[in-house]
Amino acid sequence: MREKELEERQMEMARIVTALNTQQEKLQNIFQRQKENTLMQETLAAAENLDIFQLEEHRTFGIKLIGDAKNQERIIANTKTILERKQLEVKEAYQKVETLKKLKEKQEKEFYKEFLHAEMKEIDDITSARFKIG
Fold this sequence. Notes:
Shape: rod-shaped
Number of strands: 0
Distance between the termini: 56 Å
Largest sheet: none
Number of helices: 2
Mean pLDDT: 91
Strand content: under 5%
């Protein structure tokens, strides 16, 4: 049961890591679009026929990309916080599983110790009975 809980926690953590990677990739795409937009603005500004409307559109788009990047960074920060909590949950579940394994091993050792003790006593009783008879 504890192992199933551990497995579920690990699956949840894996989904969060996947989401985080997707979010970081999205942020990188935003940065790439910002670079492309800046290059386009520079190209338009250096052109012979200066088109103010296109420059304004690229400037507005650049401002939107900056806002998108900030939002994406906040989303990534929140996801990292959630991931840290999930990592703690996985660690706790793992510790529970390990504790139960150790307890089980200890109980098995105790059982075999008692079993060997009872077997030795039985052998001693048999040996004593033979000695008395003989």
